Amino acid sequence: MNQLEYRIRRGLHAAGERIPESPLVASGKPPSVKPRRSLRGPLAGIAAMVAMLFVVGSVSLLFRGPVDGNAVSRPPDDLGPGLGTSDLSTDTTAPSQGSIVEGTVVNGSAGSCSPTVARGILYLGGPASQNNLAANGFIFSLPAGPTAADFATTFVSSAVVGDGCEQQITASTESDLGQGRSAVGVDLIPPATRADLRLTVDIASEDDVVGITEVRGATSFDVVTREDAPAMLLLDVLPQEAASLTVKFRKGEDVWELSVSADEPQIALAVPPSETDPFSDAEAQWVLFTVLDRDGALLDVGGALIP
Amino acid sequence: MEEFKVVVSGDSVGVSDFADFYEGWRDPIRRALALSTGDVAMADEAVDEAMTRAMGSWEQVGAYERPEGWVYRVGLNWARGRYRRRGYELLTSIDPERPAAFDPPDLDVIDAVGSLSARLREVVIARYYLDWSTSDVARALQIPEGTVKSRLARALTRLAKNLGEPS
Q: Which residue from A285, A276, A228 is spatially nearest to A254, judged by alpha carbons?
């Protein structure tokens, strides 16, 4: 290698090192759900950076498991443990369109533990339907039927406790109308052994649509096709070492990225409530996810092209 | 520890080899694509696109002598297609105004490499950034090794002139 080649090599390597990192999930950073937009011209980069502040994910999440419409609405003084996972009770009525769920308290417990945990469908968009509301402003729109509290409680009960652990589950919603959002917090009594994967769901209402703006917790998933729409089927809990997970998928012109990072002891997945970009009607083309431990070492990577 | 598997369409995908490959090569390929296209955001998308395709065909791609070459080529081709569909030419230079711009310590080298045509630049990046041999570059880009050498020679001649170095 002559002097010229050496200089080129050294210059390129130095430049390569200066290229900003692209961590799969930056530990400790706020979680985000955002599309990374490719650039469309010399000024598009600035636009893209701005756009990242105003993006929306409208992936719809539907549980086919314990949330089955059997959830019973009860008054607040009719709470109590001892209910099966598929029999979780809630003291709230289904949220009307445009309302924010408030003051909900849900109690429930389930039978013996099993290694099988939550199964649900994380829709990657596609045509809007009853099961895929894909509304702007939400990472997941709520399907018709179960209430926000049902949804959150079942998600937690099965994702954290597993199918049928003897745990009491309490969920409550808290509204912060000033922020235009509410949250459903779920507590397990006593704490489940998988409490590091405890999960909470934030819910907001906007333009007559109730949706989820933040989910903390994660499971693995399967890529499937449901009702002609690609979907991810939630499967198991993450390995104990998992500290972060990133899901990327291409939909139309954009690559969307759902970053789930652990922040002791929770794993968070969030989207800023102000994001307003429309979600492409195009089908997702591929999905890629990575799981990292706390040291940033890759635990797993997976994904698929979606035909 | 419970084994964490990815299940796609009911088939368990053994990704251990791919995971190793992904961990080792995603970042270098991404950076090489960023240097080749002058567009870090495009490189991010391109490497994800190419890696996902590699995973989808891992049984075949993983058997290649240089799967990373395949990923580099697929990423480059994908980026070219993106620019074409958008009505933009592949960058003819690395534009410092571009977002997520990096701060290279030897701007002259970046300017000189950026002034090369895309075809020449891709070869230069593969040879001098990824440190691949000319035969590896040829395999990666699916061009004859003689073409790689001639492109390198042409590139070096221009770079020498632009950098004021003896060729």
A: A285
